[in-house]
Amino acid sequence: MAAMTRFAKLSTISHIRRCLYSSTCVAAESSPHETSPFGNYNITRRDPSERNVQWVFLGSPGVGKGTYASRLSNLLGVPHIATGDLVREELASSGPLSKQLTEIVNQGKLVSDETIISLLSKRLEAGEAKGESGFILDGFPRTINQGEILEGVTDIDLVVNLRLPESVLIEKCLGRRICSQCGKNFNVASINVKGQNGSPAISMAPLLPPTSCMSKLVSRSDDTEEVVKERLRIYNEKSQPLEDYYRNQGKLMEFDLPGGIPESWPKLLEALNLDDFDERQSVAA
What we know:
Elements: H1 13-21, E1 34-38, E2 41-45, E3 54-59, H2 65-76, E4 80-82, H3 83-91, H4 98-106, H5 113-129, E5 135-138, H6 144-151, E6 158-163, H7 166-174, E7 176-179, E8 185-187, E9 191-193, E10 202-204, H8 211-214, E11 217-218, H9 225-248, E12 252-256, H10 261-271, H11 275-284
Parallel strand pairs: 3-5, 3-6, 4-5, 6-12
Antiparallel strand pairs: 1-2, 7-8, 7-11, 9-10
C-alpha cells in the first residue's frame, strides 16, 4: 500500500516541484537565510523554495538505496552523496583525516559520528562553492544521534525508507557476485515470491554478467547467510528509532519495493509525485 501512496504530507512539496521546473530556484545568487556552523565549516541554509531537494535514503543492506538514489540524483540534477564513498575518498587522499581513518579501519572500528559529519560538511561546503543546490544522502544518518547532528548542519526535506521482506533481502545478498577481473557487480538470484496473506508478489530478475565474466565470478567473503542475517538484525535494531524520529517530524515516506528496477522505478516516481517530471525529461531528451 505504501508503494502506491503518493507523497503529499510535507508542506514543502509544492516548493520542491517548483524548484524542479524552474531554473531560478537553483541560482547561485540565492540569498542565504541562515548559516549553521559545524567545526570549521559553514553550510548555508536556504528556504526550500530557493533550492533543490535535500533528501535522505534509508533502507536495509542490500535493498538498493544506492541504485535508486543515483537514479533520482540524475533525474533531479542533484548530487548523490554516499558517506561510504566519502570515507573511501578520504582514505585515498593525503587529507588531514586520512591517517586517522586508516588506523580506525585497520583496527576494525567504526568511524565516529563526528568524523562522518566533518567529511559530509566538507563535501556540502565544496558543492555549495561550485554552485550545487540540494542533495540526496545515502547511508547517513543511521542513528538518532547522527540525525540530530545532521540537523545542526543542514535541513532535510524528506526521508525515503525503502523496504523489502527479510527473506528477499537475504536472497539478494546471497546472490551478489563480483567479477574478479573487471570488478563489476552482478546478481545471480532469481527472486519470485508469491503474494499471500495480503502481501504483494515480488519478482526480481537476475543481473547476469556477460559471457566473458561468467567464469570469473566470486562472492564477497561476508555474504554468508549467517553474516547477512546478523547485519540485518543490527540494522533493524538501530534503524527503528531513527524511522520513528523522522516519522514524528512528518518527513518519513515508506516505500515497499514491488520488484526489481523495471517494476519499482515507475512506482517510486509516482509515490514522489515525479512521474510527470520524468516524462517531461524524456520528451526533452
